């Protein structure tokens, strides 16, 4: 079954920390344009997109973190598209004392919809990428900003595009990201109630 223009996809990027703990980053993408794309072409484009996005910051990620795979679910068609390995990232490139694993560099993605803001917490970095354990160095921040730009850049499949944004299943509504803010600090991921937030 092909992917159609306007379909909403849920994409989950999975890495492992120290060979035991999963680090999963989930975001949504909309297929923009009209027509359709084969599942295989879509999965390949998503893989390349993820490698480009994460590759801009992967040298700042602790070498105890290893990129593993990605899973895609077509929300519009209510079906899984598959899980494939991530090829081309491997272990993070930063050797040294890592920060506590609950802490993360953060990118914020505002939308045109009030209170709909995407937040992407990244895998743990190391002390040498911060000035005091709390603020990213200028070079690390530049890499984080480059990552944000790649996430904002729509990805071509063959004729249609993947566009990042926030999806609200209750309304339902897809709100495209319109800009991105690479935060200078190190942040703690806060658990939230099921169904709250983007």
Number of domains: 1
Strand content: 35-45%
Outline, from the CA principal axes? globular
- How much helix, percentage-wise, in residues? 10-25%
Terminus-to-terminus distance: 28 Å
Helix/strand order: EEEEHEEEEEHEEEEE
Number of strands: 14
Low-confidence stretches: 194-198
Radius of gyration, taken over Cα atoms and rounded to an integer in Å: 17 Å
> Total number of helical segments?
2
Average pLDDT confidence is 93
Note down, in words, how this protein is organized:
The protein has 198 residues and is an alpha+beta fold. It has one domain (3-188). 16% of the residues lie in helices and 37% in strands. A hairpin with a 3-residue loop joins strand 2 (8-17) and strand 3. It is globular, with a radius of gyration of 17 Å. 33% of the residues are buried. Residues 194-198 have low confidence and may be disordered.
Write a brief structural summary:
The chain has 198 residues and is an alpha+beta fold.
């Amino acid at each position: 079954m092909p992917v159609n223009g306007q379909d909403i996809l849920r994409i989950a990027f999975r890495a492992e920390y120290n060979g035991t703990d999963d680090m999963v980053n989930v975001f949504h993408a909309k297929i923009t344009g009209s027509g359709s794309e084969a599942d295989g072409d879509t999965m390949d484009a998503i893989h390349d997109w993820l490698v480009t996005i994460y590759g801009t910051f992967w040298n700042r990620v602790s070498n105890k973190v290893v990129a593993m795979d990605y899973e895609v679910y077509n929300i519009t068609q209510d079906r899984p598209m598959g899980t494939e390995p991530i090829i081309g990232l491997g272990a993070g490139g930063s050797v040294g004392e890592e920060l506590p694993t609950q802490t993360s560099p953060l990118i914020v993605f505002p939308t045109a919809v009030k209170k709909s803001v995407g937040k992407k917490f990244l895998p743990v970095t190391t002390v040498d990428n911060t000035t005091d354990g709390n603020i990213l160095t200028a070079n690390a921040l530049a890499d984080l900003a480059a990552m944000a730009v790649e996430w904002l850049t729509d990805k071509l499949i063959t004729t249609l595009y993947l566009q990042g944004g926030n999806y609200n299943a209750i309304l339902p509504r897809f709100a495209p990201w319109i800009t991105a803010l690479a935060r200078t600090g190190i942040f703690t991921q806060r658990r939230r109630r099921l169904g709250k937030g983007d």
